[in-house]
Amino acid sequence: MDWTFPERWSIPKFPLDELSDSGLTWATSHLSGLTRALSRFVAGWIETGTDLLLLVPPPLVILAIAGLAWWVAGRRVGLGALIGFAFLWNLRLWDSTMETIVLVTISTAAALAIGIPLGIGCALSNRTWKTVGPALDMMQTMPSFVYLIPAIPFFGLGAVSAVFATVVFSMPPVIRLTALGILSVPRELIEASDAFGTTPMQKLVKVQLPLALPTIMAGINQTIMLGLSMVVIASMIGAGGLGREVWRSIQRLNAGEGFQAGVAIVIVAVVLDRITQAMARRARTA
Description:
Elements lengths: L15 H15 L1 H24 L2 H16 L1 H16 L3 H31 L1 H16 L6 H8 L3 H25 L3 H9 L4 H34 L8 H11 L2 H31 L1
Helix pairs in contact: 2-5, 2-8, 3-4, 3-12, 4-12, 5-6, 5-8, 5-10, 5-11, 6-8, 7-8, 8-10, 10-12, 11-12
């Protein structure tokens, strides 16, 4: 059966697409100066970080990553990081791996700088939560490819648009889990701190945040994983790194290179995941 609207019906279509286009056009025209400055700033950090990592001999970087993993997560993870990154070097994917790590690091740092204060605000203010909560629901259900659409008019093709899209896509978990961690602090401890005459800031810094730290670390872990997945998707708009290798193999129908780049992404993801999980366990037992 044909379920399209008959012509005799006089119900007009809500112009959501036209309103979206108009809003995006207005924003890009009125905020162009800010976005250009922000683009230059972020591009500078990306180029500087990538150049610094590529200046260091790969064996030293591999030993540093393995040493960090050993110290934070134990011997098994340290040896796994050593073998995994040495394997990436052997696959001739070292430059792409370093680009991916820089993109994920910058995106995660920006997402945490915005998300953790928002999560604290949501925990301390019910009005803030009612405002931010629906936006988080929309952000987490929106298809990831949609985030690439507004990034291009603001920042153009390239790594800066990838960082913008990744920050927006990966921010919701750390906001939710920061708020959840603070709200999960036992009421008895809150009442005890109030009885000792602590100020709201002292209570937040000395009681709520330390007890919420394991949950916040879980949110950081999820943000890093989402950031890594989005950086790969953002290769469609010109981002570099391992995502570019995957996208290039799809365009050339080269299954071997695509599988190789996919394995490299898995190695980076597993190492980052194990390190952040170990940091969360340490925070839980501290």
